[in-house]
Write a structure and sequence with these properties.
Length: 428
Amino acid sequence: MENKKIGNYRWGICFLLFVATTINYIDRQVIGLLKPTLESEFHWTEVDYSYIVMCFASMYALGYVIFGGLIDKIGTKIGYTVSVVVWSIAAILHALVKSTIGFGFARGLLGLAESGNFPAGVKAVAEWFPKKERALATGIFNSGTSIGAVVAPLLVPWLLGLYGWKEAFWITGALGFVWLIFWIIYYEIPSRQKRLSKEEYDYIHSDIEEVSEEKQEKLKWTSLLGLKQTWVFIVGKVLTDPVWWFFLFWLPAYFADTFQLDLTKPSPHLAVVYAATTIGSIGGGYLSSHFIKIGWPVLKARKTTLLIVAIVVTPILFAQFATNIWVAVAIISIATAAHQAWSANIFTIVSDIVPKNAVSSVVGIGGMSGSIASTLFPLLVGSLLAYYKQAGNISAGYNILFIVCGCAYFVAWIIIHFLTKNMNKSNN
């Protein structure tokens, strides 16, 4: 009854953020799914392809800071629009280029623009949800990363077989423009949204804010880097983002090397792992929101959830003892789901402890830091696996990496705990 009186317009906004994030992950995965076709078409070597991937990764890291500051400056609606327009154009450009350099340029532009998704999404959640609902809303829109990871392997091969590789880029790239129609029509900050009822507006602003959303002074990056709040997010991303990218890019190889999984055929094992991340993202958001609704201080609710997540990740340490592939799938699925629960809450903490006018900037700074760490971590992964592969015991290399993954969240939580230990009670 309460929701009927209050209204649910804010959840429509959350759905828009979820769809955009899904499209974001579909667009970034297309080239990987078309890799065999494009290698044959353009005579790529593995080195050529690695350079194209590096173009995306490096520009994605840079774009986090650019879009983080831009969205705080020009607003969520226009900032998100710019991001989606540019990344959709970049996705379509892949169908028009005719060289490896051209693909590198298109891929770099895609990475630059796609980085605007999370600064805009987290800021939109801060604008549209009270603190007791933010983690759940963030978990829902963040689950688009998982849905995109599942949809792309189904959609792209179908488009390739039906039309061709160019059309696959055209059609997936056009999805962003379709989304923009609904975004432009339905999004505004609550104070300007005429479709919003007074009851829901009051509910959204039920948290006490020191400064109104339209009269806050802009904070410089130098000031933000001096805040413990910023370092909470940086630590949360730098120590755990590389683990997520390890799960994304090396799990198929792990299953192939350890359990002789045939990667040329559809894999229910990988589907289960990535499907579990959706449950983790939404479940992690729900848990901390539940703690707040039953009366816990906001920061205590977030930190307790993060601690639970850190504990849930630790079974990954035992993956090295799995002799059955489905046992390994179960253990790793729990860890990947826990990561997404961590992600939903670490993004939400920014909107809890940072002024609304600086949310996107802090997300940009932390996101860039996490992206840089994720770019460097593969150097360790590659060197470690190459060493043990040459020694004839590649499983030992994966075992060391699983130990790193299992410890990373605890280390991050301990640092975050001490950074937030004496924070002003008003943030709670």
